[in-house]
Amino acid sequence: MAWDVVKIVEAVAESLEREAAARDAEQAVYGIDVLDELALHPLIQRGLREAEFGVHPEQGYPSDRRVRRRKSQGKRCDIVLTAHGAPLLDPEAEQTLFGDADAVPLDAAYWLEVKTVSQFTIEGPFARYSAELLQPVTKDIRKLAQDRLIFHAGLLLVLFTADPIVATHDLGAWEHRALQRGYPVAPPIVRDFAITDRMGNAHVSVALFAVRRL
Question: Global pTM?
Answer without folding.
Answer: 0.91
